Amino acid sequence: MTELLQTITGFDLWHLALPVVSARDHGIGRVEGSCEIVVLRLTAEGGAQGFGEASPWSVFTGTPEATYAALDRYIRPLVVGKRVADRAQIMEQASRAVAHCTEAKAALETALLDLSGHITAQPVWAFLGGKARNTIPLSCSIANPDFDADIALMQRLRDDNVGLIKLKTGFKDHAFDVMRLERIAQDFPEFNVRVDYNQGLEIEQAIPQVLDVAQFKPDFIEQPVRHHHYDMMAQLRGMMDIPLLADESVFGPEDMTRAAREGICDGVSIKIMKSGGLTRAQSVARIAAANGLMAYGGDMFEAGLAHLAGTHMIAATPEITLGCEFYQASYFLVEDILETPFHVENGQVIVPDAPGLGLRPDLSKLDHYAKQRSF
Ligand SMILES: [Mg+2]
Questions:
Q1: Where does 127-350 sit in CATH, by number?
Q2: Could you say which of 68, 84, 86, 232 is the most buried, measured as most Cβ atoms within 10 Å of its Cβ?
Q3: Alpha-carbon distances of 158 from 54, 165, 168, 321, rounded to whole Å
Q4: pLDDT tens digits for 128-145?
Q5: Ligand 1 centroid to residue 245 C-alpha, Å
């Protein structure tokens, strides 16, 4: 069947724990051992299938257990029996049925779009307004508590022609941050460097430490303080000429509207896992652009399926001009879940033109890494 009017008949879930190659420290917490994601598979009556990924992080967006329950118990009955074409209605009902759980909604919209793409033989970006770009510059984060291991990673990134790195700061102490910035400036001058505190600074530390780091002239400094400290974000922004970006302070279009009104940032990290889907992420980008703010495509601790969803979203969103951070599948996971590798070439993510998301997960890997399944 080729039409979108067919019914959705299957709703299957996997909760996965994917091993990672190293620890990573962010201001608000550490990831170690594995990262946990939830994969959703929708099946239509004609047999076509669509996949979506939810990539929660307990200290940032929510837990994998809550994501799984939101999909399994509360969203499943809103989806099975509906027509594939009714995507907007399904998303609206899901938003009303479950508060928060934005990663679950991102997985749902991704799977609906992938399914629509496979039924109609069109890439996901075609459903999001069409394609604005063929490649997206990749940024990789430097976040290992073992800085020697990150030096080896930066050598590998340089060999791979990745031009953007983001130094994660604020998880140990200021001297460690300054030492790493000095070392990067000296040994890796070819990188464009961004700095991200992930809310790591207390209010009383923020002004002196951020102004000190600003002297290294990074491309931008991101989210030094807790997400609700809008006043401190606005104050910091007024004290330096380095752009200040918001991440944890801005989840969806509602936060973006407030952030622009209160002048807390010069730009924003846009993530489908925060906004609750691809179309809401596009709304964040448009509100940012309308207010003269810049944007890049961030991500959570994701596997390739979520990277693909973000790639299609950014491909169709010209307002997102500062690249993306879809590095985990290539540089952080021991093994990704896709059948063929997420496509990065010369430091650029390549936007797929094949139907749906363009690549599919390997079902044997989903089963291998599953902690829980529900079919
Ligand atoms: Mg961030």
A1: 3.20.20.120
A2: 84
A3: 30, 10, 18, 22
A4: 999 999 999 999 999 999
A5: 8
